[in-house]
Design goal:
Length: 300
């Protein structure tokens, strides 16, 4: 299943208000979203048949669309229901959920006020973003040559398709060198994020440090992990982090809907050892997203 092309999978996709066969969920080659990146999306996970923080993801989808001057022709409640409907129709308990919004093909050019705003929601199985064995010992990150742009040049608080162009370039370059992913600096040369995940560091005294999300997405998983740390009375400092400061941190991990909480063993020349803080928060995150499964395991 992992190697199967995404346009050749089985089941249905929620497409503009109805469930259609997977193979029929197509767009025209002259869709504005393809040519001008006028598209926004979400990445969500379902655990035990429940989509984690669905409302937060849907609200962010609407925020991203607004930032891209697109009006989604459904309500937040309707998109929540559509995500649940698509998950149920696919029959998965544990799955990845991808809502996507894009401008259609009514106008072709930079200006596209009359284009239809389309919405689709696809659901598929996706057990792990990184190799499970590599993940246990901590993944290795390259340092990308690309930087997150100045927020005056992009809608950095939107999960917009065009903003991921340099992420793809960065990850491709990293994988060619044998790394799992890449760390990106921002336009000022400060530590920003991985290609699809936020990053945290841990000092020897157990304090968490994470870059301030002032030019990249403040992830829902990022906020969840900060909340879990505070529950354990772990101090969290959000601040500007210079690259050379990575030499002073003991632990490192990245977080995201796909990555969940993934330990990091290397970032370029900097080395880390997955330790108590990282592993504790990884366990806490699993318990947060899979409460029923954890309770059933404990009872058994």
């Amino acid at each position: 299943m992992a190697g199967q092309a995404f346009d050749q999978r089985e089941g249905v996709i929620w497409y503009n208000g109805e469930l259609v066969p997977w193979a029929d969920a197509n767009v025209h080659v002259l869709s504005h979203g393809l040519h001008y990146a006028s598209s926004v999306f979400e990445g969500e996970r379902a655990y035990g048949g429940e989509i984690f923080k669905l409302r937060e993801h849907t609200e962010r989808l609407f925020h991203s669309a607004k930032r891209m001057d697109m009006v989604i022709p459904y309500t937040v409640d309707e998109i929540d229901d559509a995500c649940k409907q698509a998950l149920t129709a696919q029959g998965y308990q544990d799955a990845y959920v991808r809502p996507v919004v894009w401008r259609g093909s009514e106008m072709m050019g930079v200006s596209a006020q009359s284009n239809r705003i389309n919405v689709a929601i696809a659901v598929w199985e996706w057990p792990s973003y990184f190799d499970p064995e590599e993940r246990k010992k901590g993944i290795r990150l390259d340092i990308s040559e690309w930087r997150r742009p100045d927020p005056a040049t992009i809608p950095c608080d939107a999960k917009a398709a065009g903003l991921y162009m340099i992420c793809t370039l960065s990850k491709h370059a990293a994988e060619k060198k044998g790394y799992a992913d890449a760390l990106m600096y921002d336009y000022r040369g400060l530590v920003a994020e991985a290609t699809g995940a936020n990053i945290f560091f841990v000092t020897s005294d157990g304090i968490l440090h994470t870059p301030t999300p002032d030019c990249f997405l403040d992830g829902i998983t990022r906020r969840t992990v900060i909340g879990l740390a505070k529950k354990r009375q772990i101090k969290v400092i959000e601040r500007a982090i210079k690259p050379e400061e990575m030499a002073d941190f003991d632990e490192c991990f990245i977080v995201g809907t796909a990555a969940e909480v993934t330990p990091v063993s290397e970032v370029g020349p900097y080395k880390f050892t997955p330790g108590e803080t990282t592993l504790t928060l990884a366990d806490d995150y699993v318990a947060e997203v899979q409460p029923k499964q954890m309770a059933d395991a404990a009872a058994g």
